[in-house]
Design brief:
Helix content is about 35%, strand content about 15%. It has helices spanning about 20-25, 75-85, 95-105, 125-135, 205-215, 270-285, 315-320, 330-360, 410-425, 430-435, 440-450, 460-465, 480-490, 500-510, 530, 540-550, 555-570, 580-590, 590-610, 635-645, and strands at about 40-45, 45-50, 60-65, 90-95, 115-120, 150, 155-165, 170, 175-180, 185-190, 225-235, 235-245, 250-255, 295-300, 300-310, 315, 360, 370-375, 380, 390.
Length: about 675
């Protein structure tokens, strides 16, 4: 799972969107507070930037991060704000409490979690003054440990060597990433991983040298288990497979919890959930289908739950290997055999869940990845951190898409909803669809009965729980029902009407457009918020190219949106993420002059990156001479292509609508 996506899933129930839009209603007053003379403000997506005018920052150096808990974040920010104004230090901070909580959530990026404020000292003296002065002002404050950094003393200050200005290079995978510049002028990735490291060529100021050396010498061998491999990582901590260091005991699972990190939507941290899991497993001790627990232990500042290692494969892995409909020639015997196995799984799942409920426990997080099929075919539940007792029920604040019950459900009914979703998923792995459109539950239940030899009544729980009910806050959507009928008529026709199918898809895409927004035209992947919303890979140019290449109608207003954005927004060289791809599409759609202007700007950026020049602060990608592809289409090539398309007499040659690809005919 790519953990970047969670932060973009809160602002809109259907599409990924910027966390800034979600948190805009709860921003800190400091975001818009008037600044004194000699200061200016800037915006970097989820960050508010405050910097003194006339102070030139180095391209890179030792930066200071401030960590904070939500309950005193505003007080911490006020302290940092006043100190940096007094000392004339540039700084940035997260714009509000919702964004701070997302940054510290369970599936936040581990290398970035905990960073509430960032301060940019201009030199070693300013760094030393900041650590001493601000450290004293914030003494006693608590915050999540910043894994990528060196903690300064016991307070909430951390530091690392990294970039101040936005410089970019390409990593070994060819991805465009933030960069540092070595003393020899070569750019290398600015790695922001979940571990503190100093580049071997980076200068270490005398004021922090002892702390850096002490961190390098620290031993992490206090865990009385030998870790054999990592099973899972999240911002809450790791899950490891290990054995006791002493003796010859069995393999165990070590589940780690970081204090004040891995927050759920209520702000509950990983340690609190781990302790809850320990209590629940103790209550369920001896129940078939529930792993044994062997106790809690604390190592350094982290807590670990030691529990039985359940050998086998998850239900997700089982379905991937066994599901018959991935094969186009799946016959009745294969479908019947799969159906028998799936029905047996449902039966064992129901028995185990009934046993859990009989002990007065609501599991709360039932989905295929939390179910393990042992080699003997028995089923085991794992991951009880969201479970609660029936008498002290707390609705889970985390959940898996498609298996999480609507708000109207409570207690054991939450598990029964998820069980109905698993019933559906085993036969058609589309459990997320009824969550978006409850009317799909009936349609999918009918499809199961038509395709699989399930017994009478098997789909009744699917129809009961997954469709809308008066108490759950959902409503049927008749308009979607009409659309389903039209889609079935199109797809079931004796001769497929592909132009109509294409036009129906294109109309749906066009209906999602947001031309009133400046950051993106169409909803899509989260990458459009980091690469910009224009490019071929994830932005408006890619969507419009796909429509054009398939012969679908392209809204002239959407073309104008892309052209206006290309003229007014900065871009970088590149086909998939940069201006070259945008120019290619604009040219196809009749915006030749805009495309030429965009290519001229890209050419200037390349010239600015010639050897001997300062690295480009605007993020222009790799530098000339670094061994990567140098020949990119420029304005002259585009003009030449235009000449080749012109017939004698100056009439444009017809341009085919199908079969064209980015880069076709290029050097």
């Amino acid at each position: 799972m790519d953990n970047r996506y969670e932060a973009y899933a809160y602002a809109d129930p259907l599409f990924y969107d910027s966390p800034r839009r979600w948190g805009a209603t709860e921003e800190f007053p400091a975001v818009t507070r008037p600044l004194p003379a000699g200061w200016e403000r800037g915006d970097l997506e989820i960050w508010a930037v405050v910097r003194p005018t006339g102070v030139r920052l180095p391209d890179q150096g030792w930066k200071v991060h401030v960590s904070s808990c939500a309950e005193d974040a505003e007080e911490v920010l006020e302290t940092v704000f006043a100190y940096c104004l007094r000392e004339r230090l540039a700084f940035k901070f997260l714009r509000g409490l919702p964004i701070l909580q997302v940054q510290n959530s369970k599936y936040a990026a581990r290398g970035a979690s905990g960073k509430f404020c960032t301060i940019y000292p201009v030199d070693d003296d300013a760094l030393e003054r900041c650590l001493d002065g601000l450290g004293a002002l914030l003494a006693g404050r608590r915050g999540p440990y910043i894994l990528s950094d060196l903690r300064w003393g016991e307070g909430p200050l951390y530091l690392r060597y990294g970039g101040f200005a936005e410089q970019y290079c390409h990593n070994e995978a060819g991805e465009r990433v933030l960069a540092l510049t070595r003393p020899d002028g070569r750019q290398v990735p600015d790695v922001r991983g979940p571990g503190f490291a100093v580049p071997d060529w980076a200068p270490v100021p005398p004021s922090v040298a002892a702390a850096v050396a002490a961190r390098a010498a620290r031993s992490d061998d206090a865990l009385p288990y030998t870790v054999e491999r990592v099973l899972h990582f999240s911002n809450a901590g790791g899950v490891y497979l290990g054995r006791a260091t002493e003796g010859d005991g069995p393999q165990v699972v070590l589940k780690e919890a970081r204090p004040l990190a891995g927050l759920d939507q209520r702000g509950v941290d990983a340690v609190t959930r781990l302790r809850n899991e320990h209590r629940i497993l103790a209550r369920l001790a001896g129940l078939p289908g529930v792993p044994e627990q062997y106790g809690l232990l604390t190592v350094w500042e982290h807590e670990f739950l030691v529990q039985e290692y359940v050998e086998g494969r998850s239900l997700s892995e089982w379905l991937t290997a066994e599901y018959p409909l991935v094969h186009p020639d799946a016959g009745p015997d294969a479908v019947a055999a799969y159906t028998r196995d799936a029905l047996g799984i449902v039966d064992r799942l129901e028995r185990t869940l009934a046993g859990i409920h009989a002990r007065g426990v609501v599991f709360g997080d039932l989905h295929p990845r939390n179910l393990i099929l042992r080699p003997d075919g028995e089923l085991c539940f794992i991951d009880f951190e969201l479970a609660s007792t029936a008498e002290e029920f707390v609705r889970p604040a985390l959940g898996a898409a498609g298996f999480t019950a609507p708000k109207g459900y409570t207690g054991a009914e939450i598990d029964r909803y998820a069980l109905a979703a698993v019933r559906l998923w085993l036969f058609y792995p589309l459990a997320q669809l009824p969550a978006l459109d409850p009317g799909k539950a009936e349609e999918l239940a009918d499809a199961i009965e038509a395709r699989f030899p399930v017994p009478a009544g098997f789909t009744d729980p699917i129809r009961r729980y997954l469709r809308a009910a008066p108490h759950d806050g959902r409503a049927e959507r008749p308009a979607l029902g009409l659309g389903r009928a039209e889609a079935r008529a199109l797809l079931a026709a004796a001769e497929p009407d592909w132009p109509r199918i294409r036009d129906a898809l294109a109309a749906g895409i066009a209906a999602t457009a947001t031309p009133d927004r400046a950051d993106r035209l169409f909803p899509g992947d989260v990458a459009q918020f980091t690469h910009g919303g224009l490019g071929l890979a994830h932005g408006a140019a890619g969507v419009l190219y796909a429509l054009h290449a398939t012969g679908a109608a392209v809204d002239p207003g959407h073309v104008r949106w892309l052209a206006d954005a290309a003229r007014t927004r900065g871009t970088t060289p590149g086909l998939y993420h940069g201006g070259h791809g945008v120019a290619y599409v604009l040219d196809l759609l009749g915006e030749r002059e805009t495309a030429l202007g965009l290519l001229e700007r890209a050419a200037r950026l390349r010239r600015d990156r010639r050897p001997g020049r300062r690295p480009d602060r605007r993020g222009a990608g790799h530098r000339a001479g670094d061994g990567r592809t140098r020949h990119r289409p420029g304005a002259a090539a585009l003009r030449g292509r235009h000449r080749r398309r012109t017939a004698p007499g100056g009439r444009p040659r017809p341009r085919p609508l199908r079969g064209r690809h980015p880069g076709e005919g290029r050097t």
